[in-house]
Records
---
Amino acid sequence: GVDCGADSRMCCRQEFFVDFKEIGWEDWIIQPEGYHMNYCSGLCPLHMAGIPGLAASFHTAVLNRIKAASAAAAVDSCCVPTQRRPLSLLYYDRDSNIVKTDIPDMIVDSCGCT
Amino acid sequence: AAKGERCPACGVAALAPGAQRDALLALAKRSILAKLRLPGRPSVPQPPSRGSLLTALRTMLRDGAATPGMLRDAAATAGMSQDGRGTGLQEYELLSFAESGSSTSHSVHLHFRFSQEVARSSDIQQATLYLFWASPGRGSQPVTVRLLRADPAGPNLTVTGETRLEVQRPGWTALDIGAAVQSLFTQDTPRLTVQLEVPEGWGSPLPPHPSHSHWPFVVARAQARTPHRLRRR
């Protein structure tokens, strides 16, 4: 996957860190100190569609080749997460119990074109 | 999209940087609360004393009840477990310290509350009650531990478990209460009451007050129920 730079226009991963102290949540979330709410953004023109290794299953790659071949279906594809991991949280619930949970698929590690 | 242009995917005009940041922070809050099934952020908690927290974690570790992850994270020392590639089902570990209830000359009541959000959406995998006997009397002290559950139909309490112990010396006792806690998870207000009964005149074998570092606690592990997936051909 590609991380976005200042003037990236093509599909890439935009880093975005939410500091729990900044949003006033540090009193009930014990760990971690923030959440990497990265997201995918940018263009996926045809020549990037289905490049192997970028969110392309074999079926998608073949389908994109067919689309790319027929100019009539000249549509862009989408910039989506290709790898994600859980967000581990340790927090106080409403009864001041200590709860630890791993929320699946909350952190985007890489992006790619479908 | 660059400033002043429109998003090529959805056509919405690009937000000014400040407005975009505010929108992303609001989205992050909504996303985390939704995944924790919380209607809003909890009010300011009354955290347990640091002594009782660390004592509880050491006791759980000695018994192997806490995964190192919880020990590490709750001790607020290391980073979070970044490599968790879980089963895809959300798992919870809960640590709940007792609230003092009513007491008489020969019995003490303790209450444990569990969050409705977790109770409604998950099944208990394991739950253990830890009791520390601070000062058993002369010789061995008979103690009856009863697990009570509020009766949805009325003010009574239903006994869901009973254990008779002979306390010989100061130290921890761990009791498996998984079935009792699971039966609570079907209630609107999942609250477990533990009654400790001793012979008349023996006095409570528990530590004297809730801020004591060896105060009773429950540790439980739960797993979200599998989401009902509708398959359509």
---
Amino acid sequence: NEEPLAFSQYPRPADTPQWNSDKPRLKDIRIMGYSMRTVDYRFTLWVRFHPNNFSADFEDVHAGELYMMETDPNQDYNIYNNTSHGSFFKKML
Amino acid sequence: DDKNVLFIVVDDLRPVLGCYGDKLVKSPNIDQLASRSIVFSNAYAQQAVCAPSRVSFLTGRRPDTTRLYDFYSYWRVHAGNYSTMPQYFKENGYMTLSVGKVFHPGVSSNHSDDYPYSWSIPPFHPPTEKYENDKTCRGKDGKLHANLVCPVDVTEMPSGTLPDIQSTEEAIHLLNIMKTNKQKFFLAVGYHKPHIPLRYPQEFLKLYPLENITLAPDPWVPEKLPPVAYNPWTDIRQRDDVEALNVSFPYGPLPDDFQRQIRQSYYAAVSYLDTQVGLLLNALDDVGLSDSTIVVFTADHGWSLGEHGEWAKYSNFDVATRVPLMFYVPGMTTSSVRQGERVFPYLDPFSYTLGLVPQGRSKKVVELVSLFSTLAELAGLQVPPVCPEPSFHVALCTEGGSIVRYFNVSEEKVEKEKGGCDDTYRCF
């Protein structure tokens, strides 16, 4: 009875917002945000992405997000940096 | 037993619907569909932007397999010759028809909505679609602008109508033809609203007086949100009314009053969409096909209404990725319908107030990428196999398992849902 997971992803051209952040063209994508969610949490890793071979480098993590739905249903309080998230990382991989 | 399929997909619709518990919205017709359907509370798109999401759920493949993250490649050329859901139904003897926005137009669907692979006849696009981003919004200065907030007098619009009204008319026309020809069909209807511009018949504003509209509960940019995760809502900044506000980039914010006007118009657009869906489902009753047609209602992704200081979609937040998803399956989600019995009588959002409870609700976390296999199973077709990894060379397979196993059709199920059963299938 593995807990169902939903994955989504979103590309970015850079680590900070810029004019083409919302809709980067493939050739300009440098980071991909991969999200894994259950009814209890959303865990997102923003990792280096290589558009020339469509590969994501999960050893080059640019940022992370972790929201616990029971205490933060609106996903306002990112606790990624103050929790050990290794198990989430492993699960995502 | 050869059920037809009516597949309704809405552009940028987050679950602000009565059947999802929203207290403000007036969406009686979609709520009525929900009262006859299994409703999924936790359904998510694989990428919160039009073309990548649509190609993903129509091919049953994730973005990393379609390799479409923007708008500028066609999967059959760029990734693999993947079958699509409508193509599969077509190859199984269905007449497949596309009305409005089902595939995203342009390169990503080969400038043809993947016709002739996916569809039996050339897809229909409402002629007034081409005015969508024209200066048709009358401003306070009495001039016409290309605004974000755009309530209109429909009689003043080009051809005196709007794209989704034309789509509904064409879909009803096709339903009549299918009925007359006794043709088994897969009809996909793609509605444009509430995608921006928020252009809708101005009378729907009356449903949402501005004094009743609040800001998002969390309109600020979260302190620990990584800058890379933030989307700077560039698309709405390019609309005339937003541009005139001279809002700073990237974090804004928009003026509070304008935020409330956007939220007001989004809700008004949802109620306008609800009337179109209501007219379409009422027509299904009229032609006597409600007892033999599966109806799916969903969206390509959600939309931020000011939460986290964000607008539009383009992020991984739940408000941008969570979508409505419900299935009406005659004889399964409702008891069989008597000949001639009306299942979806049209309900006027200006006068209808009764709350309706979904027939069944599942809290299971599910994905749009499962639509292909789920609809194949519901229609009694062979369910495509699970894709190997990688699957670029495999034409027919899916990366999303069927979610029919989460359907539970008995009243008990609804009770158990309320009783906090976290696994309806097991409880049933």
